[in-house]
Amino acid sequence: MPDEHADVVIIGAGIAGCASAYYLSKRGVKVVVVEKGDTGDEQSSRAWGFVRQQARSSRELPVMMACNKIWHDLSRELNADLEWVQGGALVVANDEETMEKVRNWVEVSREHELETKLLTEREIKELVPSMEGPWLGGMYTPSDGHAEPRKVTSAFARAAQENGVVLRTRCAVEGIDVSNGKVTGVITEKGLIKTPVAVCAAGAWSQKVARMVGLRLPYRVVRASVLETEPAEHLTKIGVLGPGIAFRQRPSGSFYVAPGPGGTDYDVDLDTFRDIRLFLPNFRRNRDLFKVHVGMELIKDVLRSIPGSPARRHPFSHTVGVEPKPNRKVLDIALRNFRRLFPSLASLGIQRYWSGRIEATPDAIPVMGEVDGLQGFIFATGFSGRGFGMGPIAGLLTSELIVDGKPSLDIRNMRHSRFREGDLDKTKAVV
After folding, report:
1. Which residue has the higher pLDDT, 89 or 294?
2. From CA 404, how far away is CA 6, in angstroms rounded?
3. For residue 23, pLDDT beyond 90
4. Which domain, by its residues, includes 270?
């Protein structure tokens, strides 16, 4: 491939990358998207599909509220069936600790004028009559919803290409050219693309991209497992999260079932020992959300770090087409919890199991925007399990930053420099 030129090169064809390309193309920007695998090959097609504003940090709440408005009209915008369902999001609690966090979050939502209702057990039963309890209570945000991840990223990519965006799949990035503190090009396995702007939207692989320009991007990659049931009668449009369970029902009738945040797996690798001081406080606050594994992934990572190894020369070669292994044990527990909630569905069969990689920052807040000391390098990553829901607004804000010089929303709390400055969010997640 001869050298190309582009106004912007986006690294990663997940939802954040494809949405960025789409919104930039609407502004007349010449964009090339490069992706080591296929469009939406990683977490963007493996997510649960929840689009929710609740239950994590007030730092990202204004951004997610703006994104929610985009979702309500996105099917029309992209002229595609995205399986968007505005059924709301329901969090249920069966212990006092969780209820206290729910009450605190409802107060935060009120401060931001987000309609979130504190519910009694009776009110939960009225929302989802077929779901068994008992519950101490919960909270419900009616403007939330869910959509089908496999369809949304493809729709953004298709709309971007119709606007002239060049999408290069099976084209891994191997370096980034920098001159006098400015990005000048992106080196791919198929050649150089000259550009003054590179957007890192590489999800779980963003850390490797950051190292290409000498930046440290602290995060850990975790695995989240999901299953899909066979179709059943329609019981609810609400996305539900509770102790040991998360589920939503697709328009086809099948359910996506996951063990909730507490069923997340973390495979220790060499990155575990980098920036560990940043992760320890949040790990202590939320250690019940992760299952830590020490094994082959660490050994493989050591071998990949050997000077002169193929993985050192081609940093993404070992990642293409590799399926992360779903944790069948935690999925079996989630399925039992699901069947306990819905006894009438006890015989419902399973269509498929899968898993995806999620990048988690020390404070579970995204990394967005420019970086200090390097002109033309922009992050749109680190969404820590909210990448699907936040993908559209990430794309819009990235496009505004590039074209207008300033995004329409304040994303200072998501700046890369907060890690160096020690300005990390200390919120303990509800779910």
Report:
1. 89
2. 18
3. yes
4. 4-421
Encoding tokens for residue 216? 């440290």
Of 182, 175, 209, 210, the C-alpha closest to 196 is 182
> In this structure, are residues 372 and 347 in contact, taking their beta carbons and an 8 Å threshold?
no
Position 276 scores a pLDDT of 72
Q: How far apart are CA 261 and CA 132, in angstroms?
A: 21
Tokens found for residue 209? 């991209």
Taking the whole predicted model, whether its pTM rises above 0.85 is answered as yes
* Measured CA distances, 334 to 5, 27, 226, 257, 290 (Å): 49, 45, 9, 7, 15
Domain count, the chain: 1
DSSP H or E segment with residue 278:
helix 276-285
* 41 pLDDT above the threshold of 80: yes
pLDDT single digits (tens) 111-126: 999 999 999 999 999 9
Residue 430 lies in a domain: no
- Rounded CA separation 276/331 (Å): 29
Written as six digits, the tokens of 109 are 């939502």
